[in-house]
């Protein structure tokens, strides 16, 4: 039987660090590190994510704000906004909440952000620095995954790591981070042959696909460290009962919200894994904590502070 690897303890530690550093920097410079999230449109999940980030900033003594633009915002109008944020000395971190409406070209938009304010770590310059293993701002979720792995005390160097998912925000940067930490990394995706067999060779398995409970026992090497990044809303009570039995919290979710959040990994895998992160309350809290840390990092980078 494996151990549930909860995100709260390491996330709390990162948050404490950010809080005390923010205080120290405020005393030393008189300035407060600030994050601005840009939200285009009214996607309900995105709205809730940016509010969470804003509140997290305020709780740690950082300035957090949201610029909410209409869904029909043009490329030119968004460019003007981002240019203004790039030039605003009070803004240390700029985050464009994804996904963007279809008329906005995501890669182009991300490329407008000043790299030293790119707290999501997905500007081409940030990703280049990551590949070069040079200091820079790193994507938050992959950094959170690394923090969770470190939390277990398990070795990374020389271990086989398999990542399912190759997105720019999770899979690919995580592969670079783990490679920089001397793991032997395999990235899998929808065209991978023998996905289960490949995954089952992993000492460290990370699922970042967005397919509820896809990763079952046959994907997992006994004792493996399994990190579940995926989140899917599942509303079918029968599926929920199969995965979680009579868990009252899941029943409450279904009653209150009509769905419950399920990871990419079937939770019953805990019988075979060494560690498994729960969904929710696994990777999620670390992603937010790392965003706060990146805001602090961006503040220091731009002011050339140690
Ligand atoms: P994404 O851009 O949709 O990428 C999904 C990846 O999974 C793709 O590379 C895709 O392969 C692969 N994939 C999908 N179905 C597959 C299959 N049947 N077999 C093998 N590979 C498959 O997603 P993302 O942005 O990386 O997010 C992934 C999940 O993580 C989502 O559920 C998201 O909500 C969650 N997430 C959580 C956090 C957090 O903080 N907890 C943060 C970020 C993301 P192809 O490239 O071949 O299409």
Secondary-structure blueprint of this entry?
Layout: E1 3-4, H1 8-29, E2 34-40, H2 44-59, E3 63-69, H3 75-87, E4 93-96, H4 106-112, H5 124-132, H6 140-152, E5 160-164, H7 171-180, E6 184-188, H8 195-199, E7 204-207, E8 225-228, E9 232-234, H9 237-244, H10 248-257, E10 260-262, E11 275-276, H11 283-303
Parallel strand pairs: 1-11, 2-3, 2-4, 5-6, 5-7, 7-8, 8-11
Antiparallel strand pairs: 9-10
The site of NADP nicotinamide-adenine-dinucleotide phosphate has 25 residues, from helix 11.
Structural write-up:
By secondary structure, this protein is α/β, with parallel strands linked by helices. It folds into two domains: 30-115, Rossmann fold, CATH 3.40.50; 140-286, Rossmann fold (3-Layer(aba) Sandwich). It contains eleven helices and eleven strands. It has helices spanning 8-29, 44-59, 75-87, 106-112, 124-132, 140-152, 171-180, 195-199, 237-244, 248-257, 283-303, and strands at residues 3-4, 34-40, 63-69, 93-96, 160-164, 184-188, 204-207, 225-228, 232-234, 260-262, 275-276. It has a six-stranded parallel β-sheet with strand order 1-11-8-7-5-6. Strand 2, helix 2 and strand 3 (63-69) form a beta-alpha-beta unit. Helix 1 runs parallel beside helix 11 (283-303). The longest helix has 22 residues, at 8-29. The protein is globular, with a radius of gyration of 20 Å. The structure holds NADP nicotinamide-adenine-dinucleotide phosphate (NAP). The site of NADP nicotinamide-adenine-dinucleotide phosphate (NAP) has 25 residues, from helix 11.
